[in-house]
Protein backbone atom coordinates (compact mmCIF):
# COMPACT_ATOMS: atom_id res chain seq x y z
CA UNK A 1 0.00 0.00 0.00
CA UNK A 2 1.47 3.36 -1.07
CA UNK A 3 2.06 6.03 1.53
CA UNK A 4 -0.25 9.01 1.58
CA UNK A 5 1.45 12.15 0.28
CA UNK A 6 2.90 13.57 3.53
CA UNK A 7 2.68 17.16 2.26
CA UNK A 8 -1.11 17.19 2.68
CA UNK A 9 -0.77 17.02 6.47
CA UNK A 10 -0.52 20.66 7.53
CA UNK A 11 -0.21 22.28 10.96
CA UNK A 12 -3.96 22.40 11.57
CA UNK A 13 -5.61 20.25 8.90
CA UNK A 14 -5.24 18.11 5.80
CA UNK A 15 -5.21 19.92 2.48
CA UNK A 16 -4.14 19.04 -1.07
CA UNK A 17 -5.08 18.95 -4.75
CA UNK A 18 -7.75 16.46 -5.81
CA UNK A 19 -7.27 13.76 -7.03
CA UNK A 20 -3.45 13.89 -7.31
CA UNK A 21 -2.66 14.45 -3.63
CA UNK A 22 -5.95 13.60 -1.95
CA UNK A 23 -8.43 11.07 -3.32
CA UNK A 24 -11.14 8.64 -2.17
CA UNK A 25 -8.57 6.10 -0.98
CA UNK A 26 -6.85 8.81 1.07
CA UNK A 27 -10.16 9.78 2.66
CA UNK A 28 -11.05 6.14 3.40
CA UNK A 29 -7.74 5.51 5.15
CA UNK A 30 -7.91 8.77 7.09
CA UNK A 31 -11.47 7.96 8.20
CA UNK A 32 -10.36 4.61 9.61
CA UNK A 33 -7.23 6.11 11.17
CA UNK A 34 -9.18 8.91 12.87
CA UNK A 35 -11.49 6.38 14.54
CA UNK A 36 -8.50 4.28 15.61
CA UNK A 37 -6.71 7.30 17.07
CA UNK A 38 -9.78 8.53 18.96
CA UNK A 39 -11.02 5.04 19.90
CA UNK A 40 -14.25 6.44 18.51
CA UNK A 41 -17.63 4.79 18.63
CA UNK A 42 -19.37 7.70 16.89
CA UNK A 43 -17.83 10.18 14.44
CA UNK A 44 -19.49 13.11 12.66
CA UNK A 45 -18.73 13.69 8.98
CA UNK A 46 -19.69 16.89 7.17
CA UNK A 47 -18.74 18.32 3.79
CA UNK A 48 -18.68 21.56 1.87
CA UNK A 49 -19.80 22.28 -1.70
CA UNK A 50 -16.61 21.40 -3.58
CA UNK A 51 -17.14 19.11 -6.55
CA UNK A 52 -14.97 16.41 -4.98
CA UNK A 53 -16.46 16.69 -1.48
CA UNK A 54 -19.34 14.16 -1.87
CA UNK A 55 -16.94 11.43 -3.07
CA UNK A 56 -14.42 12.18 -0.34
CA UNK A 57 -17.11 12.29 2.36
CA UNK A 58 -18.56 8.96 1.18
CA UNK A 59 -15.12 7.36 1.26
CA UNK A 60 -14.38 8.80 4.67
CA UNK A 61 -17.69 7.46 6.01
CA UNK A 62 -16.81 4.02 4.61
CA UNK A 63 -13.52 4.20 6.47
CA UNK A 64 -15.33 5.13 9.69
CA UNK A 65 -17.75 2.22 9.47
CA UNK A 66 -15.00 -0.23 8.47
CA UNK A 67 -13.20 0.82 11.65
CA UNK A 68 -16.26 -0.39 13.58
CA UNK A 69 -17.57 3.09 14.45
CA UNK A 70 -20.94 4.64 13.66
CA UNK A 71 -20.86 7.58 11.25
CA UNK A 72 -23.15 10.57 11.75
CA UNK A 73 -23.54 11.94 8.22
CA UNK A 74 -24.25 15.68 8.47
CA UNK A 75 -24.31 16.24 4.70
CA UNK A 76 -23.70 19.70 3.22
CA UNK A 77 -22.87 22.03 6.11
CA UNK A 78 -20.45 24.72 7.30
CA UNK A 79 -17.38 23.79 9.29
CA UNK A 80 -18.62 25.39 12.50
CA UNK A 81 -21.78 23.27 12.22
CA UNK A 82 -19.59 20.17 12.43
CA UNK A 83 -18.01 21.54 15.61
CA UNK A 84 -21.41 22.25 17.15
CA UNK A 85 -22.71 18.80 16.19
CA UNK A 86 -19.80 16.99 17.89
CA UNK A 87 -20.32 18.89 21.14
CA UNK A 88 -24.12 19.09 21.09
CA UNK A 89 -24.70 15.43 20.24
CA UNK A 90 -21.88 14.18 22.50
CA UNK A 91 -19.93 12.48 19.71
CA UNK A 92 -16.38 11.16 19.95
CA UNK A 93 -15.12 13.44 17.21
CA UNK A 94 -15.76 14.87 13.79
CA UNK A 95 -14.19 15.37 10.37
CA UNK A 96 -15.19 18.15 8.01
CA UNK A 97 -14.35 17.66 4.32
CA UNK A 98 -13.37 21.12 3.11
CA UNK A 99 -10.53 23.20 1.73
CA UNK A 100 -12.06 26.41 3.09
CA UNK A 101 -11.13 29.35 0.82
CA UNK A 102 -8.67 27.53 -1.46
CA UNK A 103 -9.12 27.30 -5.27
CA UNK A 104 -11.57 24.73 -6.62
CA UNK A 105 -9.03 21.98 -7.38
CA UNK A 106 -8.17 21.74 -3.67
CA UNK A 107 -9.85 19.77 -0.93
CA UNK A 108 -9.02 18.66 2.58
CA UNK A 109 -10.25 17.86 6.08
CA UNK A 110 -10.50 19.49 9.50
CA UNK A 111 -10.57 17.36 12.64
CA UNK A 112 -11.95 17.66 16.18
CA UNK A 113 -12.24 15.28 19.11
CA UNK A 114 -14.90 15.25 21.82
CA UNK A 115 -16.37 18.63 22.78
CA UNK A 116 -15.05 20.07 19.49
CA UNK A 117 -11.45 20.23 20.72
CA UNK A 118 -9.26 20.70 17.62
CA UNK A 119 -6.77 18.09 16.46
CA UNK A 120 -3.61 19.65 15.02
CA UNK A 121 -0.18 18.35 14.08
CA UNK A 122 1.07 18.35 17.66
CA UNK A 123 -2.12 16.97 19.21
CA UNK A 124 -2.92 13.96 17.07
CA UNK A 125 -2.79 14.73 13.36
CA UNK A 126 0.67 13.19 13.06
CA UNK A 127 -0.68 10.05 14.77
CA UNK A 128 -3.60 9.91 12.33
CA UNK A 129 -1.11 10.21 9.46
CA UNK A 130 0.94 7.28 10.81
CA UNK A 131 -2.15 5.12 11.31
CA UNK A 132 -3.41 5.94 7.81
CA UNK A 133 -0.06 4.91 6.34
CA UNK A 134 -0.06 1.68 8.38
CA UNK A 135 -3.45 0.80 6.85
CA UNK A 136 -4.51 -1.78 9.46
CA UNK A 137 -7.14 -4.35 8.42
CA UNK A 138 -10.83 -3.44 8.85
CA UNK A 139 -12.66 -4.16 12.09
CA UNK A 140 -14.56 -7.44 12.37
CA UNK A 141 -17.66 -5.40 13.25
CA UNK A 142 -18.95 -2.80 10.83
CA UNK A 143 -20.50 0.43 12.05
CA UNK A 144 -23.71 2.06 10.85
CA UNK A 145 -24.48 5.34 9.09
CA UNK A 146 -27.06 7.77 10.49
CA UNK A 147 -28.09 10.85 8.51
CA UNK A 148 -28.73 13.88 10.73
CA UNK A 149 -30.22 17.23 9.68
CA UNK A 150 -28.80 19.63 12.25
CA UNK A 151 -29.96 22.84 10.56
CA UNK A 152 -32.95 23.36 12.94
CA UNK A 153 -30.79 22.85 16.04
CA UNK A 154 -27.97 24.97 14.65
CA UNK A 155 -30.28 27.82 13.68
CA UNK A 156 -31.74 28.02 17.17
CA UNK A 157 -28.27 27.73 18.68
CA UNK A 158 -26.80 30.75 16.87
CA UNK A 159 -29.97 32.83 17.36
CA UNK A 160 -29.62 32.27 21.12
CA UNK A 161 -26.61 34.63 21.10
CA UNK A 162 -28.86 37.64 20.46
CA UNK A 163 -32.37 38.93 21.07
CA UNK A 164 -33.89 38.60 17.57
CA UNK A 165 -36.64 41.06 18.53
CA UNK A 166 -33.99 43.75 19.03
CA UNK A 167 -32.78 43.59 15.42
CA UNK A 168 -34.09 46.37 13.18
CA UNK A 169 -35.13 46.05 9.53
CA UNK A 170 -31.67 46.51 8.07
CA UNK A 171 -30.74 45.95 4.45
CA UNK A 172 -27.83 43.58 3.92
CA UNK A 173 -25.90 42.38 0.90
CA UNK A 174 -24.73 38.82 1.58
CA UNK A 175 -22.08 37.28 -0.72
CA UNK A 176 -21.52 33.57 -0.15
CA UNK A 177 -19.05 33.25 -3.02
CA UNK A 178 -20.93 30.07 -4.07
CA UNK A 179 -19.83 28.48 -0.79
CA UNK A 180 -22.19 27.22 1.89
CA UNK A 181 -22.68 30.59 3.61
CA UNK A 182 -26.10 31.52 2.24
CA UNK A 183 -27.26 27.90 2.36
CA UNK A 184 -26.90 28.29 6.14
CA UNK A 185 -27.69 31.98 6.61
CA UNK A 186 -30.98 31.87 4.68
CA UNK A 187 -32.46 29.72 7.44
CA UNK A 188 -31.20 32.09 10.13
CA UNK A 189 -32.39 35.27 8.43
CA UNK A 190 -35.90 33.83 8.07
CA UNK A 191 -36.20 34.61 11.81
CA UNK A 192 -35.12 38.25 11.42
CA UNK A 193 -36.76 41.34 9.86
CA UNK A 194 -33.69 42.15 7.73
CA UNK A 195 -33.95 42.57 3.97
CA UNK A 196 -31.17 40.52 2.40
CA UNK A 197 -29.79 40.77 -1.12
CA UNK A 198 -27.98 37.44 -1.66
CA UNK A 199 -25.07 37.19 -4.10
CA UNK A 200 -23.54 33.96 -5.44
CA UNK A 201 -25.92 32.17 -3.12
CA UNK A 202 -26.04 28.67 -4.63
CA UNK A 203 -23.34 26.27 -3.45
CA UNK A 204 -21.22 25.61 -6.53
CA UNK A 205 -17.74 24.15 -6.31
CA UNK A 206 -16.82 25.62 -9.69
CA UNK A 207 -16.88 29.11 -8.07
CA UNK A 208 -18.09 30.75 -11.31
CA UNK A 209 -17.73 34.37 -10.09
CA UNK A 210 -14.75 34.30 -7.76
CA UNK A 211 -12.94 32.13 -5.25
CA UNK A 212 -14.58 32.11 -1.81
CA UNK A 213 -11.77 34.09 -0.20
CA UNK A 214 -12.95 37.56 0.88
CA UNK A 215 -9.50 38.38 2.28
CA UNK A 216 -8.49 39.16 -1.32
CA UNK A 217 -9.73 42.52 -2.54
CA UNK A 218 -10.62 41.27 -6.02
CA UNK A 219 -13.07 38.79 -4.51
CA UNK A 220 -14.92 41.58 -2.68
CA UNK A 221 -15.51 43.85 -5.64
CA UNK A 222 -18.94 42.52 -6.62
CA UNK A 223 -20.22 42.86 -3.05
CA UNK A 224 -18.74 46.36 -2.74
CA UNK A 225 -20.53 47.53 -5.89
CA UNK A 226 -23.80 45.92 -4.82
CA UNK A 227 -23.72 47.50 -1.35
CA UNK A 228 -23.40 50.90 -2.98
CA UNK A 229 -26.02 50.23 -5.66
CA UNK A 230 -28.56 48.89 -3.15
CA UNK A 231 -27.73 51.57 -0.57
CA UNK A 232 -27.47 48.71 1.88
CA UNK A 233 -26.72 49.17 5.56
CA UNK A 234 -23.99 46.54 5.47
CA UNK A 235 -22.33 43.84 3.42
CA UNK A 236 -21.29 40.43 4.73
CA UNK A 237 -19.16 37.81 2.98
CA UNK A 238 -18.18 34.29 3.95
CA UNK A 239 -15.34 32.01 2.98
CA UNK A 240 -16.13 28.66 1.35
CA UNK A 241 -16.94 26.66 4.48
CA UNK A 242 -18.50 29.67 6.25
CA UNK A 243 -16.47 29.49 9.44
CA UNK A 244 -15.19 33.02 8.76
CA UNK A 245 -17.15 36.17 7.99
CA UNK A 246 -16.09 39.56 6.64
CA UNK A 247 -17.88 42.90 6.61
CA UNK A 248 -18.39 45.97 4.44
CA UNK A 249 -19.82 49.20 5.81
CA UNK A 250 -22.58 51.13 4.03
CA UNK A 251 -20.05 52.82 1.72
CA UNK A 252 -18.64 49.45 0.64
CA UNK A 253 -15.44 49.95 2.62
CA UNK A 254 -13.91 46.78 4.03
CA UNK A 255 -13.97 46.53 7.83
CA UNK A 256 -10.76 45.02 9.15
CA UNK A 257 -11.13 41.89 11.29
CA UNK A 258 -9.04 43.73 13.89
CA UNK A 259 -11.74 46.37 14.34
CA UNK A 260 -14.53 43.77 14.23
CA UNK A 261 -12.83 41.98 17.11
CA UNK A 262 -12.95 45.20 19.15
CA UNK A 263 -16.66 45.72 18.36
CA UNK A 264 -17.53 42.12 19.16
CA UNK A 265 -15.56 42.32 22.41
CA UNK A 266 -17.75 45.26 23.44
CA UNK A 267 -20.92 43.37 22.47
CA UNK A 268 -19.89 40.25 24.39
CA UNK A 269 -18.96 42.25 27.50
CA UNK A 270 -22.39 43.87 27.49
CA UNK A 271 -23.86 40.37 27.78
CA UNK A 272 -21.15 38.92 30.06
CA UNK A 273 -19.74 41.74 32.20
CA UNK A 274 -16.23 41.29 33.52
CA UNK A 275 -15.40 38.40 31.19
CA UNK A 276 -12.01 37.56 29.75
CA UNK A 277 -11.44 38.42 26.08
CA UNK A 278 -8.56 37.07 23.96
CA UNK A 279 -6.78 38.47 20.95
CA UNK A 280 -3.58 37.62 19.11
CA UNK A 281 -0.61 40.06 19.04
CA UNK A 282 -0.53 40.82 15.32
CA UNK A 283 -2.62 43.94 16.02
CA UNK A 284 -3.50 44.62 19.61
CA UNK A 285 -4.27 48.05 20.96
CA UNK A 286 -7.81 48.59 19.64
CA UNK A 287 -9.02 45.32 21.15
CA UNK A 288 -7.14 45.81 24.43
CA UNK A 289 -8.53 49.31 24.88
CA UNK A 290 -12.11 48.22 24.01
CA UNK A 291 -11.94 45.37 26.52
CA UNK A 292 -10.57 47.51 29.35
CA UNK A 293 -13.00 50.36 28.61
CA UNK A 294 -15.90 47.93 28.92
CA UNK A 295 -14.73 46.36 32.17
CA UNK A 296 -13.28 43.15 30.75
CA UNK A 297 -10.06 41.24 31.32
CA UNK A 298 -7.76 41.28 28.29
CA UNK A 299 -5.43 38.38 27.53
CA UNK A 300 -2.97 38.19 24.62
CA UNK A 301 -2.45 34.73 23.09
CA UNK A 302 -0.81 33.07 20.11
CA UNK A 303 -2.66 33.17 16.79
CA UNK A 304 -4.06 30.03 15.19
CA UNK A 305 -7.32 28.29 15.97
CA UNK A 306 -5.87 25.47 18.08
CA UNK A 307 -3.89 27.91 20.24
CA UNK A 308 -6.84 30.28 20.56
CA UNK A 309 -9.28 27.53 21.55
CA UNK A 310 -6.86 26.03 24.07
CA UNK A 311 -6.27 29.46 25.65
CA UNK A 312 -10.00 30.16 25.77
CA UNK A 313 -10.63 26.94 27.65
CA UNK A 314 -7.73 27.60 30.00
CA UNK A 315 -8.88 31.13 30.85
CA UNK A 316 -12.64 30.50 30.45
CA UNK A 317 -12.69 33.43 28.02
CA UNK A 318 -16.10 34.48 26.69
CA UNK A 319 -14.73 35.58 23.31
CA UNK A 320 -11.59 35.61 21.20
CA UNK A 321 -10.88 37.14 17.82
CA UNK A 322 -8.23 37.14 15.11
CA UNK A 323 -7.67 39.63 12.30
CA UNK A 324 -8.07 36.73 9.84
CA UNK A 325 -11.85 36.70 10.41
CA UNK A 326 -11.97 33.88 12.97
CA UNK A 327 -14.18 34.72 15.95
CA UNK A 328 -14.49 32.29 18.87
CA UNK A 329 -17.22 32.09 21.52
CA UNK A 330 -17.25 30.22 24.82
CA UNK A 331 -20.94 29.44 24.42
CA UNK A 332 -20.22 28.02 20.98
CA UNK A 333 -18.11 25.29 22.60
CA UNK A 334 -15.09 27.62 22.35
CA UNK A 335 -15.23 27.24 18.57
CA UNK A 336 -15.18 29.83 15.80
CA UNK A 337 -18.33 30.76 13.93
CA UNK A 338 -19.10 32.57 10.70
CA UNK A 339 -22.72 33.27 11.67
CA UNK A 340 -22.71 34.43 15.31
CA UNK A 341 -20.61 37.56 14.57
CA UNK A 342 -23.06 38.63 11.86
CA UNK A 343 -25.96 38.39 14.30
CA UNK A 344 -24.09 40.22 17.05
CA UNK A 345 -23.11 43.07 14.72
CA UNK A 346 -26.72 43.43 13.58
CA UNK A 347 -27.89 43.53 17.19
CA UNK A 348 -25.20 46.07 18.13
CA UNK A 349 -26.14 48.33 15.21
CA UNK A 350 -29.83 48.04 16.11
CA UNK A 351 -29.44 48.73 19.84
CA UNK A 352 -27.14 51.71 19.31
CA UNK A 353 -29.07 53.06 16.33
CA UNK A 354 -25.81 53.56 14.44
CA UNK A 355 -24.41 52.33 11.15
CA UNK A 356 -21.49 49.95 11.04
CA UNK A 357 -19.41 52.80 9.64
CA UNK A 358 -20.29 54.96 12.63
CA UNK A 359 -19.38 52.16 15.02
CA UNK A 360 -16.02 51.53 13.34
CA UNK A 361 -14.99 55.13 12.58
CA UNK A 362 -13.61 55.95 16.07
CA UNK A 363 -11.34 52.92 15.74
CA UNK A 364 -10.24 53.89 12.24
CA UNK A 365 -9.48 57.43 13.47
CA UNK A 366 -7.30 56.27 16.38
CA UNK A 367 -5.61 53.01 15.35
CA UNK A 368 -3.66 52.80 12.11
CA UNK A 369 -2.35 49.51 10.72
CA UNK A 370 -0.12 48.31 7.91
CA UNK A 371 -2.06 45.15 7.17
CA UNK A 372 -0.17 41.87 7.13
CA UNK A 373 2.86 41.91 4.82
CA UNK A 374 4.59 38.66 3.80
CA UNK A 375 8.20 38.36 2.72
CA UNK A 376 9.85 35.16 1.46
CA UNK A 377 13.18 34.81 3.27
CA UNK A 378 14.26 31.51 1.71
CA UNK A 379 14.32 29.28 4.79
CA UNK A 380 13.15 29.05 8.38
CA UNK A 381 16.75 29.35 9.56
CA UNK A 382 17.16 32.68 7.79
CA UNK A 383 13.80 33.84 9.13
CA UNK A 384 14.76 32.95 12.71
CA UNK A 385 18.06 34.80 12.33
CA UNK A 386 16.29 37.92 11.03
CA UNK A 387 13.89 37.86 13.99
CA UNK A 388 16.84 37.63 16.41
CA UNK A 389 18.52 40.60 14.72
CA UNK A 390 15.28 42.62 14.82
CA UNK A 391 15.00 41.93 18.54
CA UNK A 392 18.52 43.25 19.06
CA UNK A 393 17.83 46.30 16.89
CA UNK A 394 14.63 47.21 18.80
CA UNK A 395 15.73 46.09 22.26
CA UNK A 396 14.83 49.52 23.69
CA UNK A 397 11.14 48.68 23.28
CA UNK A 398 8.92 46.38 25.32
CA UNK A 399 9.62 42.91 23.91
CA UNK A 400 7.22 39.95 23.91
CA UNK A 401 7.50 36.43 22.46
CA UNK A 402 3.89 35.30 22.81
CA UNK A 403 3.69 34.82 19.05
CA UNK A 404 6.89 35.45 17.15
CA UNK A 405 8.43 38.79 18.14
CA UNK A 406 6.37 41.76 19.30
CA UNK A 407 7.96 45.08 20.24
CA UNK A 408 5.87 47.87 21.78
CA UNK A 409 6.67 51.58 22.01
CA UNK A 410 4.48 54.40 23.33
CA UNK A 411 3.09 55.36 19.91
CA UNK A 412 3.73 52.34 17.68
CA UNK A 413 4.37 48.62 17.79
CA UNK A 414 5.13 45.71 15.48
CA UNK A 415 4.81 41.94 15.36
CA UNK A 416 6.85 39.67 13.11
CA UNK A 417 6.52 35.92 13.01
CA UNK A 418 7.36 32.94 10.83
CA UNK A 419 4.73 31.08 8.84
CA UNK A 420 4.03 27.55 10.08
CA UNK A 421 4.26 26.05 6.61
CA UNK A 422 6.35 28.36 4.37
CA UNK A 423 9.64 30.30 4.63
CA UNK A 424 7.70 33.53 5.05
CA UNK A 425 8.04 36.30 7.59
CA UNK A 426 4.70 37.97 8.38
CA UNK A 427 4.91 41.60 9.49
CA UNK A 428 2.23 43.77 11.11
CA UNK A 429 2.76 47.35 12.24
CA UNK A 430 0.32 49.58 14.11
CA UNK A 431 0.50 53.07 15.57
CA UNK A 432 -1.35 56.27 16.32
CA UNK A 433 -0.81 57.89 12.90
CA UNK A 434 -0.69 56.55 9.35
CA UNK A 435 2.51 58.45 8.59
CA UNK A 436 4.24 56.83 11.58
CA UNK A 437 3.01 53.36 10.57
CA UNK A 438 4.16 53.86 6.98
CA UNK A 439 7.61 55.06 8.06
CA UNK A 440 8.15 52.20 10.50
CA UNK A 441 6.78 49.64 8.03
CA UNK A 442 9.27 50.76 5.37
CA UNK A 443 12.08 50.74 7.93
CA UNK A 444 11.29 47.18 9.03
CA UNK A 445 10.82 45.90 5.48
CA UNK A 446 14.21 47.35 4.50
CA UNK A 447 15.82 45.48 7.40
CA UNK A 448 13.99 42.22 6.61
CA UNK A 449 14.75 42.35 2.88
CA UNK A 450 18.37 43.16 3.61
CA UNK A 451 18.68 40.29 6.07
CA UNK A 452 19.22 42.95 8.79
Set out the fold topology.
Elements: E1 14-17, H1 24-38, E2 42-47, H2 53-66, E3 70-76, H3 79-88, E4 93-97, E5 106-113, H4 121-134, E6 145-147, H5 151-159, E7 171-175, H6 181-189, E8 195-199, H7 221-230, E9 234-238, E10 245-248, E11 254-255, H8 257-271, E12 276-279, H9 285-293, E13 297-300, H10 305-315, E14 319-321, E15 327-329, E16 335-336, H11 340-352, H12 356-366, E17 368-369, E18 373-376, H13 380-393, E19 398-400, E20 405-408, E21 412-418, E22 424-431, H14 434-449
Parallel strand pairs: 2-3, 2-4, 3-6, 7-8, 7-9, 12-13, 12-14
Antiparallel strand pairs: 1-5, 4-5, 9-10, 10-11, 14-15, 15-16, 17-22, 18-22, 19-20, 20-21, 21-22
Helix pairs in contact: 1-2, 1-4, 8-9, 8-11
Short account of what is shown:
The protein is α/β, with parallel strands linked by helices and 452 residues long.
**Separation of the first and last Cα atoms:** 48 Å
Rg result: 22 Å
Beta-strand share of residues: 15-25%
What is the approximate shape? globular
Structural class of the secondary structure composition?
Answer: alpha/beta
CATH architecture call of the largest domain: 3-Layer(aba) Sandwich
Q: What's the quaternary structure here?
A: single chain
Percentage of residues assigned to helices: 25-40%
- The whole-number mean of residue pLDDT values reads 96
The beta-strand count equals 22
What does the model show?
This protein has about 450 residues and is α/β, with parallel strands linked by helices. It folds into 3 domains: about 5-150, Alpha-D-Glucose-1,6-Bisphosphate, Chain A, domain 3 (3-Layer(aba) Sandwich); about 150-355, Alpha-D-Glucose-1,6-Bisphosphate, Chain A, domain 3, CATH 3.40.120; about 370-450, TATA-Binding Protein. About 40% of the residues lie in helices and about 20% in strands. The chain has a 6-stranded mixed sheet, with helices on both faces. Strands 17, 18, 19, 20, 21 and 22 form a 6-stranded antiparallel sheet that branches. A 5-stranded mixed sheet has the order 8-7-9-10-11, with helices on both faces. Helix 1 crosses helix 4 (about 120-135), helix 8 (about 255-270) runs parallel beside helix 9 (about 285-295) and helix 8 crosses helix 11 (about 340-350). The N and C termini lie far apart (about 50 Å). The model has no long low-confidence stretch (mean pLDDT about 95).
